[in-house]
Amino acid sequence: MKTTAPPNGDSISPGENVRRRAEKKQALRQKILEAAREVFFRDGFMAANLDEVAQKAGVAKGTLYRYFESKAELYVEVLAHNGEIFKLRMYETASGSGSASDRIRRVSTFYFDHWVRNRDYFQIFWAIENQSVIGELPPGVLGQVSELWAECIEILAGIIAEGIERNEFREADAWEVANILWTVANALIQTEKSATRRSLRRVSLETAFNDAISLFLRGMLA
Amino acid sequence: MKTTAPPNGDSISPGENVRRRAEKKQALRQKILEAAREVFFRDGFMAANLDEVAQKAGVAKGTLYRYFESKAELYVEVLAHNGEIFKLRMYETASGSGSASDRIRRVSTFYFDHWVRNRDYFQIFWAIENQSVIGELPPGVLGQVSELWAECIEILAGIIAEGIERNEFREADAWEVANILWTVANALIQTEKSATRRSLRRVSLETAFNDAISLFLRGMLA
Amino acid sequence: MKTTAPPNGDSISPGENVRRRAEKKQALRQKILEAAREVFFRDGFMAANLDEVAQKAGVAKGTLYRYFESKAELYVEVLAHNGEIFKLRMYETASGSGSASDRIRRVSTFYFDHWVRNRDYFQIFWAIENQSVIGELPPGVLGQVSELWAECIEILAGIIAEGIERNEFREADAWEVANILWTVANALIQTEKSATRRSLRRVSLETAFNDAISLFLRGMLA
Amino acid sequence: MKTTAPPNGDSISPGENVRRRAEKKQALRQKILEAAREVFFRDGFMAANLDEVAQKAGVAKGTLYRYFESKAELYVEVLAHNGEIFKLRMYETASGSGSASDRIRRVSTFYFDHWVRNRDYFQIFWAIENQSVIGELPPGVLGQVSELWAECIEILAGIIAEGIERNEFREADAWEVANILWTVANALIQTEKSATRRSLRRVSLETAFNDAISLFLRGMLA
DNA sequence: TATGAATGAGGATTCATTCAT
DNA sequence: TATGAATGAATCCTCATTCAT
What we know:
Chain A has helices at residues 14-47, 50-57, 61-67, 71-94, 100-117, 123-129, 131-134, 141-165, 174-190, 195-200, 205-220. With 222 residues, chain A is mainly alpha-helical. In chain A, helix 9 (174-190) runs antiparallel to helix 11 (205-220).
């Protein structure tokens, strides 16, 4: 009889069973997050359609609500997830040795390369710049995101402060300068999202990006 | 003198009457545009609610459609209106005399001051950066806006080219450098739109803005 | 001085003045009716747009309401106006001499020719057939129109009754037969309004129309 | 026997479950179609209100859109549904044996009886006559409907051609005559939709209908 | 009297969220 | 647990009618 037959033969311990189930659940969560990222980043928060997210994730619409409380929470999770990955790698890159200029260049290169390979991830930076578009994000969402942002600037500020200390860079407010650098880098990258802006560029984005960094560094040299 | 004009009565010429009506209509159009700007810029295109626009303008919902064909057209008009005013003043400021550095500073100061006094107007620059959000705008709209953008860069490029020619600035691609400068200025200003970004700044925006310009100029000096 | 100058020289009696004004008003009324007919007959009552009617009539929208109380009343007037003209001519044609068959043919030919030259007028017959489309006509409208319809059938019934009396036609209920004839004629004509129906016809409408009349007459001959 | 089936319990196979759900869905679809037919046929396409359709079907407004893409599609489905049923039965009736006259009478009787029992279904014939009212139907819709129309005429033309061949009917263009017959039958039936037309009739519709068919047949006899 | 600007009720459509199975 | 059908609030847009000038 069906009810007595072991569903399949392997003798699985109860703990094993639980673990598998948890893994499966985690995998589905990931799948949903990926689908959501694609849709959110393409259409923006308001215009994004959960029907499409569900379809891309290969689950029913109702299932989304078993993993995330609302559209807003799903969005937040997408942003947080992407940011976490980015931050870790940026830390690694920044912590190497060399002159401040070299390290700034290295981080910049990492930033650019990372963008080349993970354009979608960078939408998080767009999102924080443009929270006004979104308009109705639940309170608390941005706090989470802004933390990531602060940490990135902090990394740059650390390098710059060291450069100043070593007299490699001229005297300045390290954090402020880091903020400017970060702003410039982001702004240039975001240029790519606009057909108009792209059409106004007369050199490759990479060239423009590197030239901007060089300009910055030349401006900072003691 | 105005006071001697016929106080009132039937002696108003028909032309006068027509003029008054046209004025009134124009005034209402302005009122709608202002209300629309407020709502669009606060909530973004998608989330903006025409009901609120109508209410703020003190007119019925249907009235909006006597002045603008659709939500999209209303948005476009808001953007175009703002841009035109800005461009004219920027031209005036840039065309004065002085060293390239001075002129860059002057334009930058104009830019910043104009923003201080007309924050809303600057949304047009945001709009062009984020055309992807808007998406459904009628074709040809962005051409109009992107022209403004190009003209602004052109103004800066003209000054920079002159500076290079006079050996005030080091050799460089004037247009590319202008594009970077323009990008930086815009990005810093737009910082203000984000509570997150604002909270990360440790000096006033004005200080940050001026320091960024100085950094840029120092990087460019021969 | 302007106030004493006769607006224009002709010494017009007050009565003359009144008459002219009345004529002008009547002319405008006609113009509105014509514009309304065009629009109503093309789009149907529901879909017809008074903006377009006003524009075609060359008057302001508000003016329509000085001549007609509502959209519905305007529609009624259009129908009544067209019907009156048609009925008068049909009477004339029917009242000639000849055999019943000849007179039936004559009226049929008149009907067809009148349709050829005044297709729009015939919408009135469509309207009465399809009052359900319109749905919300004010009560009383159709009574007026149905009277015309009845009179047309009456004319045909008169001819047929005479034909029966003279043993030209076989015994039958004259009114009933007239109703059938009238229905057939209208239905064939209305065929033209439908692209589908038109495409199904394999001879000209005129041929089909005449053949149907012949079929009817052959069926009626004693 | 149904009564011996497991009363209920957890022993329902998944397939059974799926089937039930599909059935329920189908039932709801039918319910919506019925509600829609009622409203569309009473008020016409333009004036019909989907709020009322939803209410009559006992569902929320949004639910309509789970079953039909738009008001127009819902309308089309209503028409198509009705037409398909009719066509099948007409075929059956026409394919019996007997003289051409008998078969024409038989089809006519079927037509009339079918109308008596399914008045709403006949709106499809009205729809094709009045496609101009509808206007905004998605392309390709009318093709579907017009095909039905053509097939009905074809059936009649087949009978008539046979009658001519057997010298039961006089020489004529079978298709043209069929078209006339079809037009007459429809026009008479549609008479019922108009209170005006109904009030003008002095015999029952059935009598008028039969008399018209007789008149037609007498006109066709060799 | 004629105008045309203003009105606002009404209607189609979308989509985040709920919940019975 | 996963499903997906059902929901209904929300929103853009239309247009007959009114009314101040």
